[in-house]
Give the backbone structure.
Amino acid sequence: MPTDYDVVVVGGGLAGASLGAALARTGIRVLIVEREAQFRDRVRGEALQPWGAAEARELGFYRPLIEACAQETRWWTTPEENRDLIETTPSRLGFLNFYHPEMQQHLLDQAVQADVELRRPTEVVTVIPGNPPTIKLRENGSEQQITARLVVGADGRNSKMRGWGGFRVSRDPQCLTISGILYGDLPLPEDAIQFVLDPGAQRLSIIIPIGGNRFRAYLCFRHDSRAPLTGTKDHSAFLDLSVATGAAPEWLENAQAIGPLASFDGADNWVDFPYREGIVLIGDAAAASDPSFGSGLSLTLRDVRVLRDHILREQDWHTAAQRYAQEHDRYYASLHRIHTWFRDLWFGVGAEADEMRARALPRIAEIRAGFRISSPRAPMPHMMKLRGGACLAVISGIFGREPAWSKDIGCDIKRDPALGSGAADRPRTMNSG
Ligand SMILES: Cc1cc2nc3c(=O)[nH]c(=O)nc-3n(C[C@H](O)[C@H](O)[C@H](O)COP(=O)(O)OP(=O)(O)OC[C@H]3O[C@@H](n4cnc5c(N)ncnc54)[C@H](O)[C@@H]3O)c2cc1C
């Protein structure tokens, strides 16, 4: 049956804009509907992990993002070491960092250049699943109805597409709160992420350079330990807690906020098998992973690349979307499992958690001499003081499991005696000389 478009994408964020551009470049007729007239700072992800940067490269966005608004960030700095990510990751890439609204706008521009039709500010008010699915839009007070072969829900962590599509949403119990703020001009290098974890206090602090002397600072803590930090009234509490967690006081003593302080619930929420009757979900709409572990952008770009590949491979898009949904279930489950281990190990409370840490931390320290994960597409959660493979291998041992995750995510862990400690002889801050 003829439809108005091949693909209608609901939402023009990272997921929607990058998928729209990737499909339109191959001649597919795409409409993106975005309700915001202009993107603003909503305190969203700005540090794309090396495995996500590899997905951006495969999608053809890596260099254009650097030319437009992103920066490569080579160093992962903890109190113990400076890890050279380019030397020690399977993708040989560092983090790709950016100011989120600039990244969104750039990708939407790329989509339009690739011949995507963009309607903005326009809101999708409902989608009716079917063959073909129908989309109702509201623009300038009037409503319109259109059809497409496939509707892509890329409408973020509070997705309404899930409800319209009849998807069942699963949620983890609430455990962590993440608070974030943007600072200008901190006395820190612009090519290093500063990460400090205090498992004793169940808190972590991370400061991410995003270019132009801007730094996104996050603080993660157990949600039952205190109220969320929001607005100017909580600025000094944010600074005090960051320093109490281990951020150096001199980093933050003259910190000037240049964006809002906002807090978010850290629990994952997701749908199983994100495809039904002409509606496919990607990005946070498919699975919003706990932002405390900083994988959402990477997961989103993996969704985009996997869905694009299946659509380009299959004549029948019903089959393509089903294959994507199957694959999504597998890689998201692996990532979710790894995040759960980190959450339990770093943020668990009580005697059992203390005992686990007492066993784990010395063992992690013992094997920091070097493991390597060899896989071009291995998710590499960055919440670790050690090399990815080492930390994950130890954790899988502690939890008494086979490292099945390594098969799920296609990794091959090898002990690599050639790898040193990874600690480079490098100052921790610009001031420390
Ligand atoms: C505090 C915080 C920190 C984070 N930090 C990191 C990090 O360091 N690293 C990392 O990898 N990830 C991080 N993330 C996660 C990351 O931000 C998300 O995974 C990513 O932004 C998801 O992109 P998306 O396109 O799926 O959703 P979104 O970016 O939310 O985009 C959805 C778009 O859909 C539009 N929309 C919604 N409904 C409609 C509608 N009905 N009609 C039309 N348009 C609509 C919205 O306006 C929006 O533009 C963080 C998240 C949070 C909350």
Summary: The radius of gyration is 21 Å. Residues 10-16, 33-36, 43-48, 123-124, 154-157, 160, 178, 180, 264, 283-285, 291, 294-298, 300 surround flavin-adenine dinucleotide (CB under 6 Å). The chain has three domains: 5-172+267-334, 176-265, 350-415.
